[in-house]
Specification:
The protein contains 19 helices and 18 strands. With 655 residues, the chain is of the alpha/beta class. A hairpin with a 2-residue loop joins β8 and β9. α5 crosses α6 and α9 runs antiparallel to α10.
């Protein structure tokens, strides 16, 4: 279906690919991996004809269709979510728009209406909407979201709508760039199962090893300007790559010994007339050899020593008889929990169970309604969430931000750590104000690791990290001597870090005093990923005690009715709070977009040499740029608070 033949591509004198070839057949499931900057996204650009190879050829089977999901920032206009999901082609999008306008009375042109109906019918439009609704529901959209304008939703939800569009479209080849970044665990599980039976071929870039293991039949690695294909999933690729490297190293050493022996003979006897011809023959033999290269060093083997926090007392933090809820919705009642120095604990359980709420209670971000949060001796708390970027000063560069710490590290240490988290070369001089959300998240993580607290609380720390950076984070945390509590959907990260597991469901916390495999064994989970979000079914595996008297057998009919009525009122109150938070988030996002557009216009104006000529307005433009940056920083902080409140209302409001 797709053939890449002897393609080379360079940018600014740097060779990304050199004489590479690749074949994708119908039904293939291929994972595309490689270090950041190796050229994965560039290869996608070549396949999409957005860039041209310097040499070589890319050939598609006639009539083959392709669908592409970028990693970030897919467009959204005035169309609704369901319209976006069913826009499988420009013609279908235009036909649906015409039909909607006509049926709403905004367009009375009968000819265009009937033509739109014809196009819609010929392209199977009547079957698309039920299919799109099923897919949108699988991606966690509610029915009330279907008629919302897509542009009023957050970037992550817009990406989900575009993913739904591709699945509705069913192209012959899906090109997916980090498709799991914007999915929660339950949506990810649905998406993974959906792709198992997808009828077309898939070529995906992903940092999720569990996802790759479940889906792909081969791995294509981009490294050192070459493509190498390995049959099997991620785990098989790791084994094969290690075996290849070992074989190459052995062959390299053998050849070097042979070369040294030949060179030694030539050096020893070239001056003797009787041996000169033999010596010259040995030198020519060396020249004719096809040299074996030494295996390239693995970029993930970067080692550096992180600073260690001050030692805390043996009892680090204690929650005593804590009650907490959002409005009338009770999340925890009588919760008691203690963490000891050096523990590494992962929180698992279904969405909405209260994992993020618990980690915020531990961090002091949320205050208990009743009960006590007590810190141990000399405990310093650090909390990292996906929204926690207020620790960044937008007026600084990336390097200045890393150096700005109460316990500053050397520039060399900062640059080494920044490089491990994808800030390489001149990237360290980029202003924080222009970083993407993912880049800001990574920079906040770097700052936390360069000056770590002795109680580290982390909510999904691997989001927006590639595989090499995740390994760097694991390496850093393996050195970490403090106490770690975290939430993650990355099975590899959990297996590497967790030494204790807390399962949370419906406000109940069940401890498992062992690593993640111990937890899987005890709960008899169906899979390592499914166990992360497993719900109350796991509690049924715990010993049950039968009630000993009538008073312990549970509430009567009247009490059950009262309980259901109270729960209904709680749900209504939670829904109202959720709508209010969503409205605030949308309004702030629109203000942020306006400010970012203004910032971009000012930056363009400042690039004009005329602004610095006599009578130019460079000073005024700089003043405006600073004012816009201040406004954007303030609005972003407000948005982060509002988004956090919305996340809490939506994720943790269901007891």
């Amino acid at each position: 279906m797709l053939t890449v033949s002897q393609v080379s591509k360079s940018f600014s004198g740097r060779v990304l690919f050199e004489d590479v070839s690749l074949q994708i057949n119908r039904g293939d499931r291929v994972g595309l991996v490689g270090p950041n900057g190796a050229g994965k996204s560039t290869l996608f650009s070549l396949l999409l004809n957005e860039a041209s190879p310097d040499t070589g050829k890319i050939a598609w089977e006639r009539s083959a269709s392709v669908g592409y999901l970028p990693q970030e920032s897919a467009p959204a206009g005035a169309e609704t979510v369901i319209e976006l999901a069913t826009s499988i082609s420009p013609e279908m999008a235009a036909a649906r728009r015409t039909i909607r306008l006509h049926e709403s009375g905004q367009d009375t042109n009968e000819d265009s209406y009937h033509e739109a109906l014809r196009v819609f019918d010929e392209n199977g439009g009547w079957q698309l909407e039920p299919k799109a609704k099923k897919i949108l529901a699988g991606l966690a959209f509610r029915e009330t979201d279907f008629e919302r304008e897509a542009r009023t939703m957050s970037g992550g939800w817009i990406m989900r709508a575009h993913l739904a569009r591709l699945l509705v479209m069913e192209p012959d080849l899906l090109l997916l760039d980090e498709p799991t970044n914007h999915l929660d665990l339950e949506s990810l599980g649905w998406f993974q199962e959906y792709l198992r039976s997808y009828p077309g071929a898939i070529l995906m870039i992903s940092h999720d090893r569990e996802f790759l293991n479940a889906l792909v039949g081969s791995i294509v690695e981009i490294a050192h300007a070459k493509l190498a294909r390995y049959r099997g999933n991620w785990d098989s690729y790791v084994e094969q790559k290690a075996a290849r490297a070992e074989q190459q190293l052995s062959a390299f050493k053998n050849q070097q010994r042979e070369i040294a022996s030949l060179q030694q003979f030539a050096d020893r006897f070239r001056a003797k007339a009787s041996k000169a011809s033999q010596a010259q023959s040995k030198l020519k033999q060396i020249e004719r050899m096809e040299k074996i290269e030494a295996p390239e060093a693995d970029q993930r083997s970067i080692k550096f020593r992180f600073p260690q926090p001050a030692r805390s007392g043996s009892r680090v933090i204690n929650l005593k008889n804590v009650d907490f809820g959002y409005g009338h919705v009770q999340i925890y009642r009588g919760l008691s929990l203690e963490a000891e120095r050096g523990q590494r604990t992962v929180l698992v359980g279904p969405n909405g169970a209260g994992k993020s709420t618990l980690i915020k209670l531990l961090a002091g971000v949320l205050t208990p309604d009743r009960g006590e949060r007590a810190l141990g001796h000399n405990v310093r708390v650090g909390y990292f969430s996906q929204q926690r970027t207020e620790v960044l000063n937008t007026r600084q560069t990336v390097l200045e931000s890393a150096l700005d710490s109460p316990n500053p590290q050397s520039e060399q240490t900062c640059r080494t750590v920044l490089g491990s988290f994808l800030f390489r070369g001149d990237d360290v001089f980029k202003p924080v104000a222009v970083l993407s959300g993912g880049e800001k998240s990574r920079l906040a993580l770097v700052k936390l690791l360069l000056d770590p607290p002795n109680l580290l609380l982390m909510d999904e720390p691997t989001t927006h990290l590639d595989i090499g950076s995740i390994d760097a984070l694991i390496g850093a945390l393996e050195q970490y001597e403090g106490t770690l509590v975290f939430i993650s959907h990355d099975v590899h990260f959990i297996r590497s870090m967790a030494r204790n597991v807390l399962h949370i469901s419906a406000g109940h916390v069940t401890p498992y005093p062992g690593d993640y495999q111990y937890y899987l064994d005890k709960t008899r989970a169906s899979s390592a990923r499914a166990a992360i979000t497993a719900g109350e079914g796991l509690q049924n595996l715990q010993p049950q005690v039968a009630p000993s008297s009538d008073s312990e057998r549970g509430p009567g009919l009247r009490e059950l009715k009262e309980q259901k009525r109270a729960q209904a009122e709680q749900r209504k109150a939670a829904a109202r709070a959720q709508r209010d938070h969503a409205k605030t988030v949308t309004e702030l996002e629109m203000r942020m977009l306006t400010l970012e557009a203004r910032q971009k216009d000012l930056a363009t104006a400042l690039e004009d040499p005329a602004a610095y000529a006599p009578g130019g307005n460079a000073m005024e433009l700089n003043r405006q740029m600073m004012a816009v940056a201040e406004d954007l920083e303030r609005i972003t902080a407000e948005w982060e608070q509002a988004a956090s409140a919305l996340q809490s209302a939506t994720s943790d409001s269901t007891p």
